[in-house]
Design brief:
By secondary structure, the protein is α/β, with parallel strands linked by helices. The protein has helices at 54-61, 88-94, 106-109, 116-127, 132-145, 151-154, 164-175, 194-211, 222-228, 246-251, 256-263, 328-338, 352-355, and strands at residues 10-23, 26-39, 43-47, 70-78, 81-82, 99-102, 182-186, 214-219, 231-236, 239-245, 313-314, 321-322. The relative contact order is 0.14.
């Protein structure tokens, strides 16, 4: 089951990644056969509800899950090298230097007993042969580059001296300290007010442009995806159920789950509704996944064939993949009835970089 998009220069290739956890309640299938590619200078958005497997997928790519009850299968190829086959020492050389991550909660990701400048300098010295003084100088420059005022003084502050938005900027500086080729941003705007959210997203876009890094953006916010991403992978119950360009996902979504995500967003070009639409029901237990389509029990359009697992296929062309048994004609009809995001993006907008 390939999700190849024909990218001329594929930097990262994840193929049939599977992550399971042994628990007292049974085997949790957190990631169930995920495949995708990331091109040079591209931003890939990964969206879905909490528990859909977004963070576990990318934590597995980074080899950051060390739970003894976790089991992994599949391949993660970065520039021709399978990261899943590297030993711990070899992976440490890649992690932070080539592939870096901005974590969800900077307060728990930063060490509270060390000054932020020291933490950034420590990572620089772990991957580069520079003196303590030079590493500290680079840490101060990075803090200034991400918009922290008075970086020389703030480098000597501890994480609790910073606001939530400023801590997120410190995390971005830490992730960028060794000029990684791939930057993974896991919900980088969670718990931030809308003004700070906009500043953080603008900063990530600027750094992507300045450094030429590729970005994987994990989020549940479809508005962020529309602004930032070139391509989108929609995850549900540990699987990718739709994968395409940002224009295709917003203008011609093919999976009923994607329709639900888009339909739950308030529209500024329509009358204010009494309440937002919601996807009925709850995601299935990852220890007892349905034998067929995992979304079937919540889907208003399920039929007999949904008892079979739908493969992720290219049904509408242009590399747009979806895992739904509904015929294309019925999907078109249902989208029209729902008055979905068929015009959710301006006609002048084609991809994340054009939104910027």
């Amino acid at each position: 089951m390939s999700t190849s998009t024909g990218l001329a220069a594929s930097l990262l290739e994840v193929t049939d990644l599977r992550v399971t956890f042994d628990t007292e309640d049974g085997v949790v299938r957190a990631v169930d056969g995920v495949s995708f590619e990331l091109g040079e200078g591209e931003t890939l958005g990964i969206v879905g509800e909490s528990g859909s497997g977004k963070s576990v997928t990318m934590m597995s790519v980074m080899r950051l899950i060390v739970d003894p009850n976790a089991h992994f299968a599949g391949s993660v190829v970065y520039r021709g090298q399978d990261l899943m086959a590297l030993d711990k020492k070899e992976m440490r050389a890649v992690r932070g230097s080539e592939v870096a991550m901005i974590f969800q909660d900077p307060m728990t990701s930063l060490n509270p007993v060390y000054k932020v400048g020291w933490q950034i300098a420590e990572q620089i010295r772990a991957h580069r042969k520079v003196s303590k003084a030079e590493a500290h100088k680079q840490a101060v420059e990075l803090l200034g580059a991400v918009g922290i005022p008075n970086p020389e003084r703030r480098a000597d502050d501890y994480p609790h001296h910073f606001s939530g938005g400023m801590r997120q900027r410190v995390m971005i500086a830490l992730a960028l300290s060794c000029d990684p080729r791939v930057l993974i941003a896991d919900e980088p705007t969670t718990a931030l007010d809308v003004t700070i959210q906009a500043q953080i997203l603008a900063l990530i876009k600027k750094l992507r442009t300045d450094l030429g890094s590729s970005v994987v953006l994990i989020t549940h916010d479809m508005g962020v995806v529309a602004e930032m991403a070139d391509r989108v992978a929609v995850m549900y119950a540990g699987r990718i159920v739709e994968h395409g360009t940002v224009r295709e996902i917003f203008h011609r979504p093919q999976h009923p789950y994607t329709w639900g995500l888009l339909g739950s967003i308030a529209r500024l070009d329509r009358p204010k509704p009494d309440r937002l639409n919601a996807i009925p029901g709850s995601p299935p237990s990852l220890t007892r996944l349905p034998t067929g389509c995992a979304f079937a029990e919540r889907c208003a359009y399920r039929f007999d064939k949904c008892a079979e697992v739908p493969p992720l296929h290219n049904r509408v062309g242009n590399g747009h993949l979806d895992a739904c048994h509904l015929p294309a004609e019925e999907k078109e009809q249902h989208r029209s009835e729902l008055l979905l995001f068929s015009a959710g993006l301006p006609e002048t907008l084609t991809a994340g970089e054009e939104a910027s």
